[in-house]
Structures are given as structure tokens and as C-alpha cells.
Amino acid sequence: MDTKFSVAVHVLILISESPNPISSGQMAESVGTNASYIRKILLLLKKAGIVDGHRGISGYSLTAVPEQITLLKVYRAVTEESKLHILDIHQNPNDRCIVGRHIKPVLTGMFADIEEGFARSLSGKTLADCIADIRKRI
């Protein structure tokens, strides 16, 4: 799993909590990356209908209140996958080996259960939950 999801949550919190419009450069400074990477993440979030921003106008806004933005929606937006997929199985196990012959079906079912649980967990958490957790730490 790459870091697009955590970066997306980070910038969404910045957008939500900033009293003034915040630019991709300011977000990049907070995240510790470059502004072009932030703009790529924002484009995915905009495509998913999570943020709104207009060319030539500095800053972005949320299209819904943080309580309505689930982490599953954010995850799906930045991974561009309708089905959550976090675990992969190696491609070429040896069919002449007893383990190699049976590993794919064993892990496929197990990984599906894990991913389903992860999706349920993300759907039960919102951007507001992340914001509340940050506020507790201040």
C-alpha cells in the first residue's frame, strides 16, 4: 500500500480546519512533499466529489461536512478502486509442491475476509473522527 491514502486524509483535515483557503503549496509544506504530488491527490479527491477547487482560484473546499466523509470513500478515491484491495498473492507457486499447489486458494479466502473487515472498519470512520483525534492530542 502506498501513502496516497494518508496524504489524502492529511490534506482533507487541512482543508477542513483552515480558516482561510489553503493552497497546494501550503499543503505540501505540511505533508512534507511537493505541491505537484498534492495536486495529483486533490485531482483524485475532486474526481470522487470529495473536494472542490477551481483553476486560477487558490484553495480547495470540502463538498460535505467531515462527519459525512468516510475513510472508505477517501481510500477508494485515491486508489481509484471500487473494491478494496490491499493484499496480493505471489504469482508463480510451484504446482509440484504440496504448499505451492494449495497456497492460492488458502490465501485468497483469508485475504478476502481481511479486506472485507478493513473496508468495514474504514466505512465506520470519518474525517471528523480523525479531526477529533487530532484535537485530543493538542
What does this structure look like?
The protein has helices spanning 4-17, 24-31, 35-47, 71-79, 98-123, 127-137; strands at 51-52, 61-62. It has a single domain, classed as Winged helix-like DNA-binding domain superfamily/Winged helix DNA-binding domain (Arc Repressor Mutant, subunit A). With 138 residues, the chain is mainly alpha-helical. The chain has a two-stranded antiparallel ribbon.
Radius of gyration: 19 Å
Which assembly state applies to the chains in this document?
A: single chain
Question: Mean pLDDT, as a whole number?
Answer: 92
CATH architecture: Orthogonal Bundle
The tally of strands reads 2
- Unreliable stretches: none
Strand content: under 5%
Q: In the CATH hierarchy, what is the superfamily?
A: Winged helix-like DNA-binding domain superfamily/Winged helix DNA-binding domain
CATH class: Mainly Alpha
Count of alpha and pi helical runs: 6
For the record, the count of structural domains works out to 1
Name the overall outline: elongated
